[in-house]
Design a protein that fits this description.
- By secondary structure, this protein is of the alpha+beta class.
- The protein has two domains: 100 residues, 2-Layer Sandwich (Phosphorylase Kinase, domain 1), CATH 3.30.200; 250 residues, Transferase(Phosphotransferase), domain 1 (Orthogonal Bundle), CATH 1.10.510.10.
- The protein is 31% helix and 18% strand.
- It is built from ten helices and 15 strands.
- A six-stranded mixed beta sheet has the order 1-5-6-4-3-2. A three-stranded antiparallel beta sheet has the order 11-15-14, with no helix packed on it. Strands 7-10 form a two-stranded antiparallel ribbon.
- A hairpin with a 2-residue loop joins strand 2 and strand 3.
């Protein structure tokens, strides 16, 4: 399917036809699907991959903004260019194109086209206007309101429900984190970056993997033992993102004035144990609510009702986040069950008062970098990792992707 072939250009001049010089016939070339572009087309769209057009850098290469003629109209796109020397990059390229080309959901980043050329591997995506979620949580001056965060949670959950249960096979994403969640102009979530994705038949036990790849802080710790990426692993990552959205804190942080590494899930569970989980809510959200109270623009009763609804949703999201990120994967819900509880059910999630420990001392595992830019988990060592991104960046329209 991906055999190398070299064909002389029909136009003469001795140059290879870069429209077809990288691979043979592919399944997604047949019928309606993403377009196969030539390298020269994508180079022209990005001013020859100039620094001015660069959006960011990921584990296997760079992402550029560009403009292509699509259906007779100029359209802004994001183009991921894989590193030439990356063996894992070739695997990611094939996984992304094969899987995403077959998926259709409003909360997934749209694949527009691809290029498999001797000059490079490239994937073309829609350019999602508001960039990645991590920037909105940590870098933007405009604070995401709770209704906006709740909408993002619902969109991400809808995408995962489609991937895990509604498509013809179960799609395990494998790298759910804020930098892989894009936001459009309406702040609807779009999940992207399927480089670590796997297809598993429904009801079939996932196969083992030789190396556990992912991002520190978001990766399911039980993968260290099982080495079987599954929908349950995605649910763990979803739970961490839930906690991150409600608290405004990263999943793992270096200690400031103490010797203990801050682990978000552990901290929220301690508050849950004290029946004080509401204390984990992002203080900026509560400050905003107090400021809104001072402006006198709402009737007191309506303001009280709105605040009670918001507080109930935030507390429920924190508890569901802990449930999804339960150390014991057998205790985690399916994404459909988690979404049901999040949306409207009065069901109460019962969690143990003390957070179960899967490893001695509940240690956080060391993350070591591989040559291709992904992380691998070491065993049984307390980490000083910050939980920073170690995987391919998302596709966004911001120039600052640091």
């Amino acid at each position: 399917m991906w055999k190398k072939s070299k064909e002389a250009s029909a136009g003469g001049g001795g140059e290879l036809d870069d429209e077809h010089d990288g691979g043979g016939e592919a399944e997604f070339e047949k019928g309606v699907g993403p377009k196969r572009y030539s390298y020269s087309e994508l180079a022209a769209a990005t001013s020859n991959f100039s620094e001015e057009m660069k959006l960011g850098r990921g584990g296997f290469g760079n992402v550029y903004k560009g403009c292509l003629k699509i259906d007779g109209e100029d359209r802004r796109v994001a183009i991921k260019k894989f590193s030439e020397s990356s063996v894992q990059g070739r695997k990611e390229f094939e996984a992304e194109v094969k899987i995403i080309s077959r998926l259709r959901h409003r909360n997934l980043v749209q694949l527009i086209g691809w290029c498999d050329s001797c000059k490079g591997l490239l994937i073309v995506y829609e350019l999602v206007s508001e960039g990645s979620l991590d920037r909105h949580i940590y870098k933007n001056t405009r604070l995401l309101t709770w209704p906006q965060r709740y909408k993002i949670i619902m969109g991400l959950g809808s995408a995962l429900r489609y991937l895990h249960a509604e498509w013809e096979q179960c799609v395990v994403h494998g790298d759910i984190k804020p930098s892989n969640i894009m936001l459009d102009s309406s702040l609807d979530a779009k999940l992207g970056d399927f480089g670590l994705a796997r297809l598993v038949d429904h009801g079939v036990r996932p196969a083992t993997t030789k190396v556990v790849l992912g991002t520190a802080g978001y990766i399911d710790p039980e993968l260290v033992n099982t080495r079987r990426p599954s929908a349950v692993s995605d649910v763990y990552s979803f739970g961490i993102v839930l906690l991150e959205l409600v608290t405004g804190r990263r999943p793992v942080e270096e200690p400031d004035d103490s010797d203990e590494l801050f682990v978000l899930a552990r901290w929220v569970w301690r508050l849950y144990r004290r029946n004080a989980v509401a204390e984990a809510v992002d203080e900026r959200l509560m400050r905003r609510e107090r400021d809104d109270d001072d402006d006198g623009s709402e009737v007191v009763g309506e303001r009280r009702r709105r605040r009670q609804q918001m507080e109930m949703e935030m507390e429920r999201a924190l508890v569901v986040g802990l449930w999804c990120a339960h150390p014991d994967r057998s205790e985690r819900p399916s994404i459909a069950r988690a979404m049901h509880v999040l949306q409207s059910t009065p069901d109460v999630v019962k969690l143990p008062v003390l957070r179960p420990q899967m490893f001695s001392g509940d240690t956080f595992h060391t993350v070591t970098m591989g040559g291709d830019g992904y992380s691998d988990l070491s065993f049984g060592v307390t980490s000083s990792s910050t939980g920073s991104d170690t995987s391919t960046s998302g596709y966004n329209s911001r120039s600052d992707n640091k």
